[in-house]
Specification:
This protein is an alpha/beta fold and 250 residues long. It has 2 domains: 154 residues, SPOUT methyltransferase, trefoil knot domain (Alpha/beta knot, 3-Layer(aba) Sandwich), CATH 3.40.1280; 71 residues, Trp Operon Repressor, Chain A (Orthogonal Bundle), CATH 1.10.1270. The protein has 8 helices and 9 strands. Strand 5, helix 4 and strand 6 form a beta-alpha-beta unit.
Length: 250
């Protein structure tokens, strides 16, 4: 069972989302468990302060090292693995991807540090952290939303978390492409029809249509995701066809 520990000043921000839907079911099935650790309780300051003014001046406050170092040490006392991944949610970190989620899903113990204020004392980054992650090029109030994003994306990759072994593998980005279009009943809704190929029960043709459709959607919406090295010769020919015709034949 995977253990996730979240160091945060606002545990209540995470409690609701962590106890609903897939995350709740994964806990009930003992696929993962979590602990929300308020690192303010580790402060040795008589007022339980966890931030201070930066040396050299400047606007804002910076998280001090002592409470976070001690909170991480507390999380590591669980001794689930000798080397847990300690993840700093930070706008300076690497851009989060599905590939990173797949990497983290192989771990036994993840420790997340959620920051606030103007940043972290650099010693936290230098001596505690194994990974720095950014979920996008924008500014949030704190790291809790980023931690939830990473946790959700990792948990859904755990065995049987989705109840269907193929679901996670077919998600957008898992194949390097966006997901193909999906349809359900009715087959004809106000003269808007489901592609005929999806109705004929020919699994090989359906699989080919879906691959083409995923390639087309990715080329139209996220061409930056497509690298020639990731495509087979057949897929390269499909891509040339898509570029010429702007339409996938049913």
């Amino acid at each position: 069972m995977m253990q996730m520990d979240v160091l945060t000043l606002f545990p209540e921000m995470l409690e609701g989302p962590l106890n609903h839907s897939i995350l709740k079911r994964a806990q009930e099935n003992q696929q993962f468990q979590y602990d929300l650790i308020d690192f303010r309780t580790f402060s040795l300051n008589k007022h339980q302060k966890v931030d201070d003014y930066p040396y050299g001046g400047g606007a804002g406050m910076v998280l001090t090292p002592q409470p976070i170092f001690d909170a991480v040490a507390y999380a590591k006392e669980k001794q689930i693995t000798p080397h847990p991944r300690v993840i700093l949610l930070c706008p300076q970190g690497e851009r989060y991807t599905q590939q990173k989620a797949e990497e983290l899903a192989e771990e036994e113990h993840l420790i997340f540090i959620c920051g606030h204020y103007e940043g972290y004392d650099e010693r936290i980054r230098e001596y505690l952290v194994t990974d720095e992650i950014s979920i996008g090029d924008y500014v949030l109030t704190g790291g809790e939303i980023g931690a939830l994003t990473v946790m959700d994306s990792v948990v859904r990759l755990l065995p049987d978390a989705l109840g269907n072994e193929h679901s996670a593998a077919e998600d957008s980005f898992s194949t390097g492409l966006l997901e193909h279009p999906q349809y359900t009943r009715p087959a004809n809704y106000k003269e808007m029809k489901v592609p005929e190929v999806l109705l004929n029960g020919h699994h090989q043709k359906i699989a080919q249509w879906r691959k083409k459709a995923a390639l087309k959607r990715t080329w139209q919406r996220r061409p930056d995701l497509i690298s020639p090295d990731m495509l087979t010769d057949e897929e390269k020919s499909w891509l040339e066809e898509i570029k010429k015709n702007e339409k996938i034949d049913d």
